[in-house]
Design goal:
Elements (H helix, E strand, L loop, with lengths): L1 H4 L3 H19 L6 H29 L2 H16 L6 H8 L3 H8 L1 H13 L5 H16 L7 H22 L1 H25 L14 H14 L8 H6 L1
Main location: mitochondrion
Catalytic activity: a ubiquinone + NADH + 5 H(+)(in) = a ubiquinol + NAD(+) + 4 H(+)(out)
GO molecular function: NADH dehydrogenase (ubiquinone) activity
């Protein structure tokens, strides 16, 4: 709410920091010892991105506006996990439980999206580079993954390209895409958590009712944006 309602870059930055600190305890889990490593990676990356955003704000005071907007966009793209600044997101996602992963791929993207819309040049060449590379990297690198967490993460990187494309038209279009994406992502995440599937080769071995298996495959097709599923609607709108 602080980020959404603030016209000031500094207050929005404070909101980003509070959000990062609040998310760190969610990352930490006693059951999985790898989460401490991923939480440190997350914290360091977010801190670096925050420093870059603040430097962008300081450049605005001293030098020209365009360079400042580009530096702010650079910092926010790292926070968003957009390609080509996505490698931290994949390493953090691999060791997370499903629910924290869902939060990381949805709620945690809201603040950078609002700030990109408010404080950076949306139709600059650098912005188009981030959109294009997110779409390409998310789609092509995802093909080489066998881990379901990595697949969902690369799918999310590809969707970030779509969020930003929506934002370039209007804030409402970007948010509509984001909300539908969050709903569509929830179904496969909950199904994969309940069946405890962490690799693709386990999918045929799911010992559940056939109906559940078809729901999982339908929800994955929806996440891919195939008609006539819900995931196709926001792509059609854009």
């Amino acid at each position: 709410f602080l980020v959404m309602s603030s016209p000031s870059l500094f207050i929005s930055w404070v909101g980003l920091e509070l959000n990062t600190l609040a998310f760190l305890p969610i990352l930490l889990s006693k059951k999985n010892k790898l989460t401490s490593e991923s939480s440190i990676k997350y914290f360091l990356t977010q801190t670096l991105a925050s420093v870059i955003v603040i430097v962008g704000g300081l450049i605005m005071l001293v030098l020209q506006m365009e360079l400042s907007m580009m530096v702010i966009l650079f910092g926010l793209a790292i926070k968003l996990g957009a390609a080509p600044f996505h490698s931290w997101l994949v390493t953090v996602a691999e060791s997370l439980a499903w629910v924290p992963l869902f939060i990381l791929l949805t709620v945690q993207k809201l603040n950078p999206l609002f700030m990109i819309w408010s404080f950076s040049q949306i139709n600059s060449n650098f912005f188009h580079l981030i959109v294009f590379s997110s779409l390409v990297v998310g789609s092509l690198v995802g093909l080489a993954q066998t881990s379901t967490r990595a697949l969902i993460t690369f799918s999310s990187i590809s969707h970030v390209g779509w969020f930003l494309t929506g934002m370039a038209f209007s804030l409402e279009t970007g948010l509509l895409y984001f909300l539908i994406y969050s709903v569509v992502l929830l179904a496969p995440v909950l199904l994969l958590e309940s069946t405890n599937v962490s690799h693709i080769n386990q999918l045929p071995l799911i010992q559940v009712k056939l109906q559940n298996q078809s729901i999982l495959f339908f929800s994955l097709l929806s996440l891919g944006g195939l008609p006539p599923f819900l995931g196709f609607l926001p792509k059609w709108v854009i």
